[in-house]
Amino acid sequence: MTISDVIDAWNEADPAAIHPTRGISEDAYESSGQNQAALLSTVLPEGSRVVDFGCGDGRVAVPLRALGYDVIGADGSQAMLNRLADRDPSMATVVSDGTDLASVIGKKADAVISLAVLIHHTYEAGERIIEGLRAAVRVNGLLILDWPVADEPQEGGGWIGVTTWSREQQDALCARVGLKRLEVDGMPWPVFRAVKASS
Ligand SMILES: C[S@@+](CC[C@H](N)C(=O)[O-])C[C@H]1O[C@@H](n2cnc3c(N)ncnc32)[C@H](O)[C@@H]1O
């Protein structure tokens, strides 16, 4: 699947597909976002400019903004951004597939977070998206990416599949685009600092 195939599928998707807690209740869905926003706030500098890439209808972006961050919701799906606007009409939003993120946000961000987005893409697409996200963050800024590593990595296939990576694949891409992995206790997703690329 290409990047636009995945976005087209999400544009048509039932909002219940965004997170398993939505199958339980809307309260459970909101609590999951609040808990993850609180976790992210232990790492993100107070009040910083944060892009939630692949924000969906704002499960995490809305509570993160409520914590005082200057949040920009970015998604490739206009349908998702419309639902986000219903929940938080004054949040800044941009349509982006990741590869163009730097140009659509203008001023670079202090951080990009991206949860449950990279997992839905092939390696080739994932590389292009990571490159785009890195370009949207200022040097020394942070990227917190739901970007899972597995001993037996595989491409998920399909818009709701789960792609896993080898640590070697990730390290090579990080060196190429300028990402330094940080050791952060208690964070379920890898955290990277934007640095100069090694080559
Ligand atoms: C599983 S939902 C996750 C939403 C949100 N991050 C969360 O954790 O609640 C995936 C979202 O990523 C968006 N998405 C997937 N691939 C994308 C891409 N290449 N560019 C922009 N948005 C993308 C979809 O439109 C959808 O809103």
From TrEMBL:
Keywords: Transferase. One of its GO terms (molecular function) is methyltransferase activity. GO terms for biological process: antibiotic biosynthetic process. Residues 50-141 form the Methyltransferase domain. InterPro entries: Methyltransf_25 (IPR041698), SAM-dependent_MTases_sf (IPR029063). PANTHER family: TRANS-ACONITATE 2-METHYLTRANSFERASE-RELATED. This is Methyltransferase domain-containing protein. It comes from Streptomyces showdoensis.
